[in-house]
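User: New here, please read:
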Amino acid sequence: MKYKPGSPEWWAHAAELEAQDAALPIGWWYLSFATEKAFNGAACVQARGLGGAIRESHRLGINPGGEVMGGKLPPEIVPPAELRHHLVDIETLRRLFPGQMMPWPDEEQTGD
């Protein structure tokens, strides 16, 4: 379901997700933010689940809006310091992960 970000319904849904994740161990989560027109950035945050990771991105002030795609990093992978709790742009991701097969947005979508 889609809720308007920041709406009471959105926060209630986020709280439900976080409650479901309460028993999970804390781990690193990769979050990617985008709209239909642009890639808005990416970050890694520590949380117990995807709902918690999204809330943490808001708490840290690094959630630029748009839809969120995220996933838990395997325990043996620690993200680079530059990506931890910081919103980074596409150029920074390419520099941090040269030659990696990452789900980069189409070039046409990285503009305004």
Confidence is low (pLDDT under 50) at residues 104-112. The longest helix spans residues 8-20. Strands lie at 27-34, 39-47, 67-72.
